[in-house]
Design goal:
Elements: H1 3-6, H2 15-30, E1 36-41, H3 48-59, E2 63-67, H4 70-80, E3 96-98, E4 106-110, H5 122-140, H6 144-157, H7 159-178, H8 191-203, E5 207-211, H9 218-231, E6 235-240, H10 249-259, E7 264-265, H11 268-273, E8 280-287, H12 291-311, H13 317-328, H14 339-345, H15 347-359, H16 380-393, H17 401-417, E9 419-422, E10 425-428, H18 432-438, H19 442-458, E11 464-468, H20 492-500, E12 511-513, E13 518-521, H21 525-538, E14 544-549, E15 555-561, H22 567-580, E16 585-589, E17 604-607, H23 614-621, E18 636-643, H24 653-662, E19 666-668, E20 674-676, H25 694-708, H26 711-718, E21 728-736, E22 742-743, H27 749-788, H28 794-834, H29 838-855, E23 868-872, E24 878-882, H30 886-899, E25 908-915, H31 921-932, E26 939-945, H32 953-966, E27 972-974, H33 978-987, E28 995-1003
Parallel strand pairs: 1-6, 1-7, 2-4, 2-5, 3-4, 5-6, 8-18, 11-16, 11-17, 12-16, 17-18
Antiparallel strand pairs: 9-10, 12-13, 13-15, 14-15, 19-20, 20-28, 21-24, 21-28, 22-25, 23-24, 25-26, 25-27
Helix pairs in contact: 2-3, 5-6, 5-7, 6-7, 7-9, 9-10, 12-17, 13-15, 14-15, 15-16, 19-20, 27-28, 29-30, 29-32
Length: 1004
């Protein structure tokens, strides 16, 4: 039977799966390479196994699938049945081989099976010992013979350590052999493994599919590379959710040599839109260090604060040193180094130096180009950069006792902050202060606050997992932080103890499972054992349990035994109870509850670990977004708990981890957009140069807890089932901190004519009212005078009153019309002129940028104003992007952002005029009246730089045309000329609208 002709997937492929296969087909048609490579990246749960099997079917050549473990190997065997509907659950055709040495058209192996190393034969051991002796000889400055004698003694007296060391060297030797031009696999792999590889070659295996291929680094990568070369493979397919982007250069080189660049990368939102994964929202809860922790952190900062105060004086040696290094920039020849060459050679030092001088109110000379980031507040990294140069190039070279002592002060102050001053510069190192923040006691209170909120919203549906780095800490010595942290802080046991000691969270019946221990809430212990024995019996597993009460806390240690008992079995059984709701909370370490852990009902993930690598974060996030049959509209809340100490330089280190963690991941925003980076959690987190204070922390926490209970809103925001383009677009986020005044009237010709017409009609009505009221009053007065004169008769007064009464009625009606006319004029003026929102002002500038780019043929002529998308976030930040191609969107976003930058080193700038509106209500009314009849004086408000792409005069003139049409009248000025210098002197380096800008990426 031709297995590939028989295979056919029984269902329709999802949209994202079809996109992967379409990309494969296009590359197959265009490829001319001897070996075809296809590198596919897609999130956990997106159906990569199904796609891999379809790829094998389409290639129609003998294939080997290689997986990282037997669990995933079993998943491939299960999924292949979806391509062979006539076979039962336990049967597979003979053409399929699952892990045996008998090669068939389709073979499913593990990496271990194809990379079993050979035994450490005598020749290899002797070679390893010689290499070991060379290393010892070099490091300890001893002879080779003496080093060999030391190794022999260790082999006899301490065989355990000897084997550990020799094993490391053997591994290096095997890698060395694998890198040789003519590699002999028999020197590296077990004979049975070599026979299996030779069998693949004899059978004619032509395609290899590597599942979870991010595991292929170092030894595995080199072995697999040699195997595909030896077998003569024509098609190499790599499937993974987490490419090793964080790995070192050598590891990444091995990986890319095998798979090449990524051919297709599918973000998680696409799979959510297709309905294969559950929507989620990323949330953060901030806490402050406990009192003892905060005191410890402050003490660590004391010495540095004293140094900073000393350096922040205009008469300090440090100040004069920075002036000399940044402003004078003396070369050995005595000449001043060109600024461009200086900043290119030492960018961080140059930027930090200018920041410091600006902070000290020093007048920066014109040969120094001041850029926008130099106006941001000094950070600790800036101080480190400047202090390093000062300490190494002035103090350390001085013989003055005062300088020698100051050098020692700097060294001690930096050590307290987690830095080491060395001859090669200042280097960061692991510090106890980092640990205090990362594993703060206050995070335990935060976890309980989160869980109580989730419990109130979800009820019995809550399924929570709390992930820690360890069970009990032994990572760092805690002697210096005595009475601040203990060995349980931040560990799984400390979380478990806290949960069971609270009456509310204890209702979750939490279970802690790690590689070492299994701990159960005492309320659940008996039932846990009973259900565990039933579960083991159903699966024919040899397992037994016993209970051991804990010495502290309301929980019990569960001790398992039997042939089939292991930490993996403990995770499987606990997850089984978790899915059924017997326990509603699992506490565990990321080593067990990350990659490979499958749970469908998990809807609350609280991450207390400090991991930030792409692979680790991606795998952990993938645990909570599996679809649940019990909750079709499941939305997962993924929580980070962050401890910050506001106003302390190193008090934000935990927050930096949050930024790094979310830097490469998409999430849903409060305005419904799907955005990459930490900004999708809350716009306040993305503001450049903004340091969170206590008020910010409280506000963010309140928003997060409110969002946590409103899962329905999050589900609607994801728009599951709606079409998507799978495009990454550039967007610009702008927050204006200064108010926007009225625009020049020339930009409102139609609106201003309407306003003038309303004013004229209201004035005419007012005049008519006054005239009619005056006439009525005159007739009434005359009638009264006539009636009181003795000589007059009633016949004289009555006609006069007959004229007065209608006039009074007409006057009243006209007066009412006048009132409504002025009220209408006021409302029209406020809506169209006074109440110009940030959104509308940004939209005007966006229209100018778009039309100028299009006319200059910098973007597609198809782009139109309707393609500009503007949304507003909860804090007033405006998001703008162009709904077009990736390139057009990116250029539009960057260009728009540059308009809001201060004037620095650009070529052209353009004027913006505004009509400054009074604040009082009556003054505004009078001003609106004058504005409508063209009696106003617009004033020059600011100069805005033209985007970089309009640096050529012809293009700059096009930009001016649309600026004058949509934004403001005004001329442009060439900043490199004499007039330009005057403009920079008066308006340069000023953020006229207080704009905070961020260039972001969104997915649609």
């Amino acid at each position: 039977m031709d297995i590939f002709k028989v295979m056919k997937f029984r269902y329709r492929f999802r949209k994202h799966q079809q996109m992967m296969l379409d990309k494969l087909d296009r590359k197959l048609r265009s490829s001319r390479r001897k070996v075809f490579r296809f590198h596919l990246v897609a999130p956990p749960g997106s159906g990569k196994t199904i796609v891999g099997l379809e790829i094998a079917r389409r290639l129609d050549v003998p294939t080997a699938v290689i997986c990282p473990n037997i669990t995933i190997q079993g998943q491939w065997a299960d999924k292949i049945r979806l391509f062979l509907p006539e076979y039962g659950a336990d049967a597979l055709p003979e053409e399929i081989n699952i892990g045996t040495p008998t090669i068939k058209p389709v073979n499913i192996f593990t990496y271990q099976m194809l990379s079993v190393p050979c035994g450490d034969d005598e020749a290899l051991v002797r070679t390893a010992e010689n290499r070991w002796a060379e290393e010892v000889s070099q490091s300890q400055n001893t002879g080779i013979e003496e080093a060999l004698l030391r190794i022999c003694r260790m082999r006899d007296s301490n065989p355990r350590l000897y084997k550990a060391e020799i094993s490391k060297i053997n591994k290096k030797l095997r890698q060395k052999y694998l890198n040789e031009a003519k590699c002999d696999l028999s020197k590296i792999l077990h004979p049975n493994t070599v026979n299996l590889i030779d069998g693949l070659k004899r059978y004619g295996i032509r395609a290899v599919i590597f599942d979870e291929c991010h595991h292929l680094q170092n030894y595995w990568a080199l072995v697999m590379k040699e195997i595909v070369s030896r077998v003569g493979v024509k098609y190499i397919i790599g499937l993974t959710a987490t490419p090793p982007v964080d790995e070192g250069n050598e590891d990444l080189l091995h990986y890319t040599d095998l798979f090449g660049e990524i051919d297709f990368q599918l973000p998680t939102p696409a799979v959510i839109k297709d309905g294969m994964l559950a929507p989620f929202q990323d949330l953060v809860y901030f806490c402050r260090p406990a009192p003892a922790e905060l005191e410890y952190i402050r003490n660590c900062h004391k010495k540095f604060r004293l140094l900073a105060d000393k350096f922040n004086k205009e008469n300090s040696d440090f100040f004069f040193w920075i002036v000399d290094r940044i402003v004078k920039r003396r070369l050995i020849s005595g000449e001043t180094q060109d600024w461009t060459k200086f900043i290119n050679s030492r960018p961080n030092f140059a930027i930090a130096g200018v920041k410091f001088l600006l902070q000290m109110k020093y007048k920066i000379p014109w040969d120094i180009t001041v850029t926008e980031n130099m106006y941001e507040p000094m950070t600790l990294d800036d101080w480190i950069c400047l202090i390093e140069d000062y300490a190494l190039n002035l103090l350390k070279l001085s013989s003055d006792e005062k300088d020698i002592n100051l050098y020692a002060e700097i060294r001690d102050a930096l050590r307290d902050l987690g830095y080491v001053l060395t001859e090669k510069g200042i280097r960061a190192h692991s510090s106890l202060m980092d640990r205090v923040l990362a594993y703060s006691r206050s995070k335990l209170e935060a976890v309980k606050t989160i869980l109580k909120t989730e419990m109130s919203a979800c009820g019995d549906r809550i399924r929570a997992a709390i992930i820690t780095d360890f069970e009990i800490s032994n990572a760092l010595s805690l002697k210096k932080a005595k009475n601040v942290n203990d060995d349980k802080c931040g560990g799984a046991i400390s979380v478990m103890k806290e949960l069971v000691s609270d009456d509310i969270t204890d209702e979750l019946d939490p279970v802690m499972v790690t590689a070492k221990s299994l701990i159960c809430d005492d309320d659940l212990a008996e039932e846990y054992v009973r259900l565990g024995l039933e579960w083991a019996g159903e699966l024919s597993l040899e397992i037994d349990f016993s209970l051991k009460p804990a010495e502290f806390g309301k929980f019990v240690f569960v001790e398992g035994s039997g042939r089939d008992w292991s930490s993996r079995t403990a995770v499987l059984f606990t997850t089984y109870l978790f899915e059924k709701g017997v326990t509603k909370c699992i506490v565990g370490t990321r080593g067990l509850l990350s990659e490979g852990w499958d749970t469908l009902n998990l809807n609350t993930l609280i991450d207390l670990s400090v991991m930030t690598t792409y692979a680790s974060v991606n795998q952990l996030r993938g645990r909570s977004i599996r679809k649940s049959n019990d909750d079709p509209k499941k939305v997962s809340n993924n929580w980070d708990v962050i401890c910050v100490a506001p106003d302390l330089e190193q008090g934000y280190n935990d927050l930096k981890r949050l930024y790094k963690k979310h830097d490469q991941f998409y999430g849903i925003c409060d305005d419904g957009q799907i955005q990459m980076g930490v900004n999708h959690i809350d716009p306040m987190l993305g503001e450049i140069g903004h340091r969170l204070d206590d008020e910010d922390i409280t506000a963010i926490n309140e928003k997060m807890l409110k969002a946590a209970v409103n899962r329905d809103k999050a589900y609607e925001a994801w728009k599951v089932g709606e079409p998507y383009d799978n495009m990454e677009l550039g967007c610009c986020e702008i927050k204006l901190l200064k108010p926007v005044s009225m625009k020049d009237g020339s930009l409102f010709p139609d609106e201003r004519r309407t306003l003038k017409s309303k004013i004229v009609r209201s004035v005419l009505k007012l005049a008519g009212t006054v005239m009619s009221a005056t006439a009525a009053g005159t007739f009434t007065a005359s009638a009264y005078t006539a009636s009181v004169q003795a000589s007059a008769t009633a016949a004289t007064a009555v006609p006069l009153l007959g004229f007065a009464v209608p006039l009074l009625g007409f006057s009243a009606i006209l007066g009412y019309k006048t009132f409504t006319g002025f009220r209408d004029m006021w409302a029209y003026g406020k809506d169209n002129f006074f109440q110009l929102s940030v959104k509308s002002s940004v939209h005007d500038i966006a229209r100018c940028v778009l039309n100028a780019l299009r006319e200059c043929e910098l973007i597609s002529y198809r782009a139109k104003e309707d393609d500009i998308v503007i949304t507003e976030r909860t804090d007033g930040t405006v998001r703008v992007y162009l709904n077009g191609s990736n390139a057009d969107s990116a250029l539009f976003s960057v260009s728009l952002s540059q308009v809001f930058a201060p004037i620095e080193d650009q070529r052209y700038a353009i004027q913006r005029f505004e009509v400054f509106v009074p604040k009082g209500g009556f003054e505004k009314f009078i001003y609106l009246f004058r504005y409508g009849i063209d009696k106003y004086s617009p004033m020059l408000s600011a100069y805005h730089p033209l985007p970089e792409v309009f640096s050529v005069r012809e293009k700059a003139l096009v930009f001016r045309k649309y600026w004058n049409k949509y934004v403001s009248p005004g001329d442009m000025v060439f900043l490199k000329g004499e007039r330009g210098r005057e403009v920079i002197e008066k308006y340069g380096r000023i953020n006229s609208l207080g704009a905070r800008r961020m260039d972001m990426k969104i997915w649609k």
